[in-house]
Each structure stands twice: as structure tokens, then as C-alpha cells.
Queue: 4 jobs
Job 1
Amino acid sequence: QVQLHEAGGGSVQAGGSLKLSCAASGHPDSRSCMAWFRQAPGKEREGVASTDIYGYTNYKDSVKGRFTISTDSAKNTLYLQMNTLKPEDTATYFCAANGNTGDFCYIGTSFDSWGQGTQVTVSS
């Protein structure tokens, strides 16, 4: 069973940066596809970025060029570097994983393991 634990959230002013991390446990095959999602108050959860074991990445259009998803296999950690943050990026950010190696890994696929979330607040 995969366990995910996010960290790195906080409050920043618009234009600032934050780096989220997600510590993962469980067999690597169970987290061959990993992603970051976010959910703002009163809104549906949305996919932000994903990456797979081959290094393929996929981003939500509104974060392209500002956010970067990466992994450190030695540390079993997923990261999300967020630059040029905007107030509309304010949300709770969640880490997610699946082991569906036969499926295409992107933010629209299904994930079966989730972290508890970390809050990101961007003020104008």
C-alpha cells in the first residue's frame, strides 16, 4: 500500500515561489505514475502536473512555464516547484499515485493513493 505525505505549503505574496514535496512509501510499482492535484474552496479538485517512471510530464495549461514536477528516486520523493505564483493558485495541494503501468500517465487518469494535502496561500 502506498502512503503519501506532503510538505512545503505556506503563504507567499504573488510572484513568489514555493516548493512542495511528497514523501512516498510502498513498492515503486505502485507509484509508477504520480501527480499533484489541488482544490480551492468551493471548487472541484483539479490535476496540476503528473510524471511517470519514464520521465514523461503533463501539466495543466495555466501552470505551464511556472510549475515543474520532478522526482528523486533515491529519496522516494515527488516535488512541485512553483514559481511566479498567482492568487488563483491558492488551494490545498495533494499528492497522488497509481501503479497503472499499462495506462498513459497524465493528470486526467485515475489515481488510487492520496496524501492528506498541504495548504498554499498566495496573496495579492
Note: The first strand starts at residue 3 and ends at 7.
Job 2
Amino acid sequence: QVQLVESGGGLVQAGGSLRLSCAASGRTDSTYAMGWFRQAPGKEREFVAAISWSGADTGYTDSVKGRFTISRDNTKKTLSLQMNSLRPEDTAVYYCTASTRTTYARPNKDQYDYWGQGTQVTVSS
């Protein structure tokens, strides 16, 4: 089993920045790609960003390209999401996720096996 714990969420004004972190523990040697998804009230959980095991391959949903940066530190077993130029539409619960199925940065939710409990990000206008 793998445990994922997110932190760093909060309330920020539009145009501001936040940095989300995810700490992994347990059998992390069984996981490869990692990613961030988000879920706004009344909406389905959607892909935000993903990163391959090596960190060389990353992917982003179009609405966050140029504003968000995903990174990982395999030595420290952490995943991060730097979010700049935040918009009210970025408001959601953000979830960290890890895959045992792929080493590549995939946007498909069914490629991921472990999920954190989520951290709330609220962007005020």
C-alpha cells in the first residue's frame, strides 16, 4: 500500500500563487508516474498535471499550461505543484495520485491507483 498526503492548499486572491506538496509513504517502490487532479463542487474529478517517474516527461491540461509546474523528488518521495497566476476557476479540491501501471505522464484517471485525501484551494476574485 501507498499513502499520499497533500498539503499547501488555502485561500488566495486571483493572480496569487500557491505551492501544493504531496508526501508519499509505504511501498513507493511500486509506483511510477504521479499526478494531480482536481474536483470542483458539482463537477467530475479532472486531470491537472502529471509527471513520469524520471521527471523528464510532464503533461498539463490546457487551462493550466504556462501557470502550473509539476515536479518530484524521488529521494524525498515528494510531489509538488507550483501554481501561479491563480484564477477563480482553479478553485477545487486538489488530489495527489500515483500509478503502478505506467511510468509515463498520463492524463487518464484510470491509470492511477493511489489517491490522497485532497487539499482545498480557493481563489477569490
Note: The radius of gyration is 13 Å.
Job 3
Amino acid sequence: QVHVVESGGGLVQPGGSLRLSCTASGSIFSINFMGWYRQVPGKERELVATITSDGITNYADSVKGRFTISAHHAGNTIFLQMQSLKPDDTADYYCNARGLYYKDIDEIDHLEVWGQGILVTVSS
């Protein structure tokens, strides 16, 4: 089993900052991709930012210049530093991890796992 756990959400005023963290743990062989997605009620989940094990990052246009994704690869942990937050950034933020895991003691399989989500509310 592999799990991801998010932390760091909460309420912040417009213009403020928050830092989200996500750690993957369990029977991991390797993680080659992690990312943050967000969703508001009635809308599809959308990409926020992603990072590969090679350090290649990708951002949604709506967050470029305001959000920064980083990783501590040895710890299978990623961070999302969010600055200049806007009310439109209010959403449930989900962590995603992809790679390989130990399905059995001598069997490796592809992995994709989502966290439970964490609420970020930007409001005065």
C-alpha cells in the first residue's frame, strides 16, 4: 500500500501566502512524478503544478509567477509555496504521486495515488 498525506491548508486573506506539503509513503519502489491539483464544487479537477524526479516543473497559467513547486525527492515529499493568493484560488487541493511500488515481495507494478485533499480558502 502507498499513501499520500497533504498538510498546510487553511484560511488566508487575499494577497497572503500558504505552503502545502505532501508526502508519499508505503511500499514505494520509485516516484517519478508528483503534483498538485485542485477542485471546486461543480467543476473538474484541474492541474496546478507538477514536478518530475528530474526536477522538471509545469504550472497552470493561472498560477505562474505566484506558486512554486519544489521537492525533497529522497523523502518523496513535495511542497507548494503559494503567494499573492486570490479568492479564485479557493479549492480543495489534491496531491498526486506516480511511479512504481512493491505489489508483492518480488513484484513491482505501476503506481498512481491521490491524497484525501486539503482545503485552501482565500477570503477576507
Note: The mean pLDDT is 95.
Job 4
Amino acid sequence: QVQLVESGGGLVQPGGSLRLSCAASGFTFSSSFMSWFRQAPGKEREFVAGISWNGYNEYYSDSAKGRFSISRDNAKNTVYLQMDSLKPEDTAVYYCARRSGGSYRSTYGYAYWGQGTEVTVSS
């Protein structure tokens, strides 16, 4: 069965960095578009970054552009999210997801989700 397991979250000070990882199994990772979403308390889940199957194309939300970087290692079935210059408003649970169709920016385009990893940006 499809499994997505995120790791790497934690508490970090404003301006700091974190690298999230998502280990995938149960499907052909190397042919799948993968994304990171996040959900802050009381808010809807929102798109953060996405990457094409071969890593050639990357997509970012306006809030992530210039600070976050998505990458993947198809040999390790893992997708990463490097987050730099973190701000308190980046505090959220971060989820990786496998795209199934439709708009890559919409949660409706994803049938499989991980359990999430919590990121807290606070001094």
C-alpha cells in the first residue's frame, strides 16, 4: 500500500532552517509528481511546493518562493523540503502528498498523504 512518512520537523527560531524529508513506498515514486502542503491551526491546508517526476520542474507558493527549495532523490524514494529564513507564520503541520491528477495547487489533486510533521517557528 502507498505510504508517505514525513520527518524533520521541530522547533526552530525565526531566521533558522529545517530540512523535511518524506520517504515513499508502495508506488512508483520515480514517475510521480510530489508536493508539500502545510496546515496551520484554524486554517485550510495550502500548497507549499511541488516537483515533477524527474525533478526538472519545481513549483512554489508565493510565500515559499525564494526561501524554500523542494528536491527529490528517486534512488531513495524520498522528497525533501529545505526551508530557510523561517518565519513564525511558517508554523504549521507539513504534509507530503502524491499527486493523482488535476491542479497541483489543490488538495483535490492528491489522493495520498503522509501523517505530517510539525514545524514551529518561535523564539
Note: The two ends are 40 Å apart (CA to CA).
